[in-house]
């Protein structure tokens, strides 16, 4: 699954698009790449758009394992707000599981079915 992200330091926002097949390895790689990127700052808002995911090759156990494996790196997100737009039932369920596992994280994460709501929660225009 290709994961593309664009960091806009002047707006303090990261736009992420996932497409194709959702896999645990690529999700973990994305997370590690983002938090170690020199332009990223923990105060940034992150919008993850999963609308272009075609299939899911991730189990609930893999979501748990990824949450545990990225635990130490999660501290680098600090006060970030992460909004995940997930219109698909399957992806929404997986992302809600991840949100629940990250409830004690140093960053705020929320999953949305409506892109406008996700953008507003981040303080972005609903466009």
Overview of this protein structure:
This protein is of the alpha/beta class and 127 residues long. The chain has a single domain, classed as 2-Layer Sandwich (Transcription Regulator spoIIAA). The protein has 5 helices and 5 strands, in the order E-E-H-E-H-H-E-H-E-H. Strands 1-2-3-4-5 form a 5-stranded mixed β-sheet, with helices on both faces. Helix 1 links the parallel strand 2 and strand 3. Helix 1 runs parallel beside helix 2. The longest helix is centred in the N-terminal third of the chain and has 13 residues. The radius of gyration is 13 Å and the shape is globular.
Task: Summarize this structure briefly.
The protein has 127 residues and is of the alpha/beta class. The chain has a single domain (3-121), classed as Transcription Regulator spoIIAA, CATH 3.30.750.
- Helical amount: 25-40%
Spatial sequence of strands, sheet with the most strands: 1-2-3-4-5
Using only C-alpha atoms, the radius of gyration works out to 13 Å
Shape: globular
Low-confidence stretches: none
Give the ordered list of helices and strands: EEHEHHEHEH
CATH class, please? Alpha Beta
- Assign the CATH architecture: 2-Layer Sandwich
Count of the domains? 1
Mean pLDDT: 85
Question: Major sheet, described briefly?
Answer: 5 strands, mixed
From the 3D structure, determine the CATH topology.
Answer: Transcription Regulator spoIIAA
Number of helices: 5
> Kindly, what is the distance between the CA atoms of the first and last residues, rounded to a whole number of angstroms?
26 Å
Total number of beta strands: 5
Secondary-structure-derived class? alpha/beta
**Quaternary structure classification:** single chain
Share of residues in strands? 25-35%
